[in-house]
Specification:
Number of strands: 0
Order of helices and strands: HHHHHHH
Number of helices: 7
Strand content: under 5%
Helix content: over 70%
Distance between the termini: 22 Å
Structural class: mainly alpha
Number of domains: 1
Radius of gyration: 19 Å
Largest sheet: none
């Protein structure tokens, strides 16, 4: 019985992780090649939705992290040049989503929080990783870039901060919507599976 549960665990993780990885390789590479803005946010939201749906279909702790490992492994096969950054993002997103739904399960509320967290991480990842590798001076560089953007756009400092806050709010709301869709799709899939078995 334990072996059967292990097979089911990795079967679900491999299926959802491979699907996520396939989207990262195809759609992700296409969006990055076209340099479409905020493509990372869209990919992070899709990944979170997929993980939430997985947790609804197979409500076992750790399965989303396993799916993230599979997805990162698939991403490693990507023909695109840089894969380390996306692999780190995939693993971090799976950990964030897993931590968010760990105790309450993949509900609409936890799904929205998980999606928002994943989308926000996709925006902040470069800042966090560069700060870890190169230290606090990186923050000064980004502050200088923000001030230069304010001068270029002729915005007062308060309006510049408001614009950043608005942008982050849009990212969070968009990610939350992806999470809600994932929870809804997972619930609908569970319902269909129950009907098929009865």
């Amino acid at each position: 019985m334990r072996n059967l549960e292990t097979y089911r665990f990795w079967g679900y993780a491999a299926t959802f992780g491979a699907l996520w990885g396939a989207v990262e390789i195809t759609v992700g590479s296409f969006l990055h090649a076209l340099r479409i803005p905020f493509s990372g946010v869209v990919l992070a939201g899709f990944g979170a939705a997929l993980l939430i749906a997985l947790r609804r279909v197979f409500p076992v702790p750790g399965v989303m992290i396993a799916a993230g490992l599979v997805c990162a492994g698939v991403k490693l096969l990507s023909p695109a040049g840089a894969v380390v950054g996306p692999m780190v993002a995939i693993l971090a997103e799976s950990l964030l989503v897993e931590a968010t739904v760990r105790w309450r399960g993949a509900t609409i509320l936890s799904g929205s929080v998980a999606g928002a967290s994943a989308a926000l991480w996709s925006v902040l990842q470069k800042l966090v990783t560069q700060t870890l590798f190169f230290g606090m001076p990186v923050l000064g560089i980004y502050q200088g870039i923000a001030r230069q953007a304010e001068r270029t756009l002729r915005l007062p400092a308060s309006e510049g901060l408001a614009a950043v806050g608005l942008f982050l709010s849009i990212v969070v709301i968009g990610g939350a919507m992806f999470g809600v869709v994932g929870a809804w799709v997972g619930k609908a899939t569970c319902r269909r599976l129950v009907q098929a078995e009865s």
